[in-house]
Write a structure and sequence with these properties.
The protein is an alpha+beta fold. It has helices at residues 13-18, 21-37, 43-49, 56-68, 85-94, 103-111, 120-135, 187-201, 206-218, 226-235, 262-276, 278-287, 340-357; strands at 72-73, 82-83, 138-144, 150-157, 162-169, 174-180, 245-250, 295-298, 310-319, 325-335.
Length: 368
Amino acid sequence: MTKPILDQTKDNRGTIETLNERSAEIFREVVDAYLQSGEPVGSRFLADRRHNTLSPASIRNVMAQLESAGLLRAPHTSAGRVPTQLGLRLFIDGFLEVGGLSEEERKTLKGQMDPSSGRLEDLLTQATDMLSGLSHCTGLVLAPKLDAPLKHLEFVPMSTGRALVVMVSEDGVVENRVIETPAGMTQSNLVEAGNYLTARLAGKRIEEVREQVLAEINSDRAAIDELTARVIQAGLAQKGGDDDKTLIVRGHSKLLTDVRGAEDLEKIGKLLDDLEQKKDLIRLLELAGDAEGVKVFIGAESQLFSLSGSSLIVAPYGHGHGNETILGAIGVIGPTRLNYARIVPMVDYTAKMIGRLLDPTQPVRLRQ
């Protein structure tokens, strides 16, 4: 069974069926025109577009009914109409005609993704850069935290009571974490802790090092003092929740390319603030793992974007037949006035292409 390109999580069928043929046509034309121009759509414009098959007065009556139904709204007095959030959701679920990618776009996506490095993070960064460039939106991807063998670990003092744990893997990936240090901790304690752990790494993964070292400390076999032991325990503390995922965001500047006035600028500023709240964004992207296809979040449907009025178009990627093992999600974010018909297949294609590049026997390895 072919999976749908869109994961339609909300059932708008009842709303769609309440629209007669004329209302549905006018509604679709208003939303199409708005998504193309970003401007309110008036009855005279639609009448000209329809070659006067309906008078402006007849179109105004239909638009008034659509406004009463909560599908359209007037931004200000005597303006045309724009779709509401409910209207956009109805349009995406019931009227959006998703096209395909051009051959040039397919070649661009394929040609700029280089799996030869063997690192999943590199591939995902390339994919996100390309997606951002082609869609003119901010690209983002949720990646699994890589767990390659370690070769070095050290503790760098920060402000009082805090230290930076620097872990370097054998494949050159550097991961930094901030930890709380016990009172009385000295520079020599931190150096001793780093040396102690590095001497025991020997190509082991963090989980293996944690198990061995904590066992030594608990059995008093570790030749270190109490403060050093405590900072080692803090550095090896089990990470969970959002810390087992890496969020890559590319193309922030794309959000500023189509700003139309102070109101848009204020919304973009709020969106940039939202992007800094990585934990909330990670939780939102994790929801995409439940989707069978591309998932679209609009404005207040997500608490994260309720004030900025943004849309997130995202798809899961993974490996195995039919993405049986989901590794993460990739997509774009921007204002609700997006070219959904073009961007939805772009996100879908990128996610599927990542899946094809992944080695089905090794979740974080790429085919050479």
